[in-house]
Amino acid sequence: FSPKNDQAWKLRDGCTRKTNLDCESDEFYEMENVKLPESTSVFVNNTMEIKECGGGGCVMWFGELVDIIKYRADGQELYIRRAYQKLGEYA
Questions:
Q1: pTM here?
Q2: Is residue 13 included in any domain, yes or no?
């Protein structure tokens, strides 16, 4: 990921992907103890199995993820889909 606009980065303008996604090889990066993002583009799937989500259901965001906050403890897990060749680069 890289800033959308270097001048507005400090004003929370957000990021864009550097590499396109590929459904065949992409993986997910886990962020722990976060406040889940605000969004109007949300899909709730209660039919996924525990092994698929690690809980009783999944919430999927489409579009921009806004207002993610990292807590020291007591937050939730968020998995960000990332291009395979970029895994580990920012971990």
A1: 0.62
A2: no
